[in-house]
């Protein structure tokens, strides 16, 4: 049975770009990205560094939070990484 707890995560590419995603298992998903089996956006952009992860609730809340973070400026994402937290999207 899949976990009902979802996480938002950010990965930094070698060029400094930030990739945002959601998953129920950050370690597994990051391993997939590093092996080239994850998002096409990250292929060939290694080494990859997992720079942020936070539990954000159920799938619906995670999806809303992901959309909100993807709309943020890079400088706001950097501030979020430094602070180590983001407020999940409201249900």
From TrEMBL:
Protein keywords: Endonuclease, Hydrolase, Nuclease
Region (Disordered): 63-91
Top-level division of the source organism's lineage: Bacteria
Keyword Nuclease: yes
Record-given protein name: Putative endonuclease
Domain GIY-YIG residues, every copy: 4-79
Pfam families: GIY-YIG
Protein species of origin: Mariprofundus micogutta
Origin organism lineage: Bacteria, Pseudomonadati, Pseudomonadota, Candidatius Mariprofundia, Mariprofundales
Homology family: Belongs to the UPF0213 family.
Compositionally biased spans, kind Basic and acidic residues: 65-80
A Gene Ontology molecular function term of the record: endonuclease activity
Keyword Metal-binding part of the UniProt annotation: no
């Amino acid at each position: 049975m899949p976990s009902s707890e979802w996480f938002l995560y950010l990965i930094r590419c070698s060029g400094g770009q930030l990739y945002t995603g959601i998953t129920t298992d950050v370690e597994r998903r990051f391993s997939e990205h590093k092996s080239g089996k994850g998002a096409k956006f990250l292929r060939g952009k290694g080494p990859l560094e997992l720079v942020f992860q936070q539990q954000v609730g159920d799938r619906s809340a995670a999806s809303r939070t992901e959309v909100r973070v993807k709309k943020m400026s890079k400088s706001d994402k950097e501030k979020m990484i430094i602070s180590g937290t983001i407020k999940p999207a409201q249900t």
